[in-house]
Amino acid sequence: MDPDEVAAWGLIDASLLQQGCGGPLISARQMQNITGTLNAKTITPQSRALAEQYWGDYGTQIMASLGCSS
After folding, report:
1. Which residue, among 69, 63, 70, has the nearest Cα to 22 in the 3D structure?
2. Residue 34 banded pLDDT, cuts 50, 70, 90
């Protein structure tokens, strides 16, 4: 899998966790990890663009599958 694709899905996962979806209540350590992922200098513009594309394509389905409102 392309590194930008991996990073894009990591961004989506971190965003979901930040919104309280996809996992238990967020601890301080989890919040540091989420913030680190969302703000990582290694995230390329291509990764961010893919994350936005994936969110547009699959966001509603992901949120519904997790039982979260959009």
Report:
1. 63
2. confident
pTM: 0.71
CA distance 61 to 10: 17
Helix, strand counts (H, E) of the chain: 3, 0
| Phi, psi (deg, nearest 5) at residue 23 | -175, 175
In terms of C-beta density within 10 A (0-12 exposed, 13-18 middle, 19 or more buried), how is residue 46 classed? Answer: middle
Amino acid identity, position 26: I
Q: Cβ distance 26 to 20 under 8 Å?
A: yes
- Supply 51's token pair: 């994350």
